[in-house]
Amino acid sequence: MVTVHASPLGRLGHGENGGMNLAVRRFCEELAARGIPSDVFTRRDDPRAPAEELIAPGSRLVRLEAGPPRVVPKHEVVAHLPSFTSALLAHAESERRRYRLLHSHYWLSGWVASRARQRWDVPWVQSFHTLARLKEAAGLPPELQRAQAEEVLARGADRLVAMSAAEERALVELYDVDPDRVCVVPPGVDAEQFGRPAPAALRAELGLGGRRVVFAVGRLERLKGFDLLLEAVARLRLRPGFDDVVLLCAGADSGDGSSQAAHPDGERGRLESRAWELGLAGAVRFLGAVDGERLAALYALADVCAVPSMTETFGLVALEAQAAGTPVVASAVGGLVDTVADGQSGRLVDGRDPDDFATALAEVLGDEGLRRRLGEAARERAAGFTWSLAAERLLHLYDCVEEALPEGALETCACL
């Protein structure tokens, strides 16, 4: 596996680390549990990190020297792709390593994998995780170089992995991909990790008292829609009976967030200033990046989890919240439409009107019986998404790509 800018062992919630890092790590763990070894190649971004490290027994993370050994913005990683490719090929040759299949994650890694495939002559599977043209369609600035590269990679890979039906549609409609070359593999969620109740002391620690809690988590950048959420909570608190509501936001600035913010304190500073302007002082807490155990506790503590993203390939936050038994109010975009069952495990909101989002939050927060029913259904829905099932689906795809069928034969890949 190639994941140039996102290490599967990176600290989640810091910088660019998020769902992609987690997915690669969990897939490698599941493959290792089935006796399938893997090497994962990433760019060294910390001079103190070891050159090699185990992800799981049989799964090895290899950090390659390509550019400065520090975190750099994604747009700067492009310049180091040729040296990363050379280091990857040299590493495999030094160990006389032969791979049966190549799986790259994100377009930067696809650039590397397309060249490694030429040298190794092995099947190549590509996951994008996010798409430039999908983000542009949501109203974000265009990324022409990236979009063009994604189109070339989408045509060149043997098979594409989409995280949701929405991503599959985007590949077909925005990149003119043959749908028969796309396999949908939704990620999973650890029900044990996210199914525990919140520690009793957490509410007191955060000084919440008996206040109702809206929780949001994600990289702090425009894509995640925190501006919309701040507006919605401000309007919600003006409604009778909702002045006790508090918003907890977990996550740190991403590279994109810092560059977009135009604020001396980055995107978090800009959002904190906006919260003050909206009269939310004391009603919004920015918690920074939180680790997995504390994240699970915050999901369980919350009365509702808000996911106001402009677009989402899947919506892992929504899935984790549902596994905690917490109803979700989310934008009706991308993979969130597949992840959240509208009216059953939460509410989906069309458009970007803060009043509409506030109304959906009010419906859930204002009816304890409804909130409990949605929470129970949310937990049941999340139970259908496991990393084991995701890995089995991925393995079906690998088998289908690796073992070419006779020309004209009907493909039997379970993902089609």
3D architecture notes:
With 416 residues, this protein is an alpha/beta fold. It has 2 domains: 19-188 and 387-402, Glycogen Phosphorylase B (Rossmann fold), CATH 3.40.50.2000; 191-382, Glycogen Phosphorylase B (Rossmann fold). The protein is built from 18 helices and 13 strands. It has helices at 19-33, 74-77, 81-94, 107-120, 132-137, 144-156, 165-175, 191-194, 200-205, 226-237, 255-261, 266-277, 292-301, 316-323, 336-339, 354-365, 368-382, 387-402; strands spanning 38-43, 52-56, 59-64, 102-105, 124-127, 159-162, 182-184, 213-217, 246-250, 284-288, 304-307, 328-331, 346-349. The strands form 3 sheets. Strands 10-9-8-11-12-13 form a 6-stranded parallel beta sheet, sandwiched between helices. A hairpin with a 2-residue loop joins β2 and β3 (59-64). The model has no long low-confidence stretch (mean pLDDT 92).
Throw out a few tags for this protein:
416 residues; alpha/beta; Rossmann fold; four-stranded parallel beta sheet; 18 helices; 44% helix; 14% strand
Distance between the termini: 23 Å
What's the shape?
A: globular
Largest sheet composition: 6 strands, parallel
CATH topology of the largest domain: Rossmann fold
* Named CATH architecture of the largest domain: 3-Layer(aba) Sandwich
CATH class of the largest domain: Alpha Beta
* Relevant CATH superfamily of the largest domain: Glycogen Phosphorylase B
> Low-confidence runs (pLDDT<50, min 5 residues)?
none
**Domains counted in the coordinates: how many?**
2
Radius of gyration: 22 Å
Overall helicity: 40-55%
Order of adjacent strands in the largest pleated sheet: 10-9-8-11-12-13
Note the total helix count: 18
Indicate the structural class. alpha/beta
Give the amount of beta strand, in percent: 5-15%
Number of strands: 13
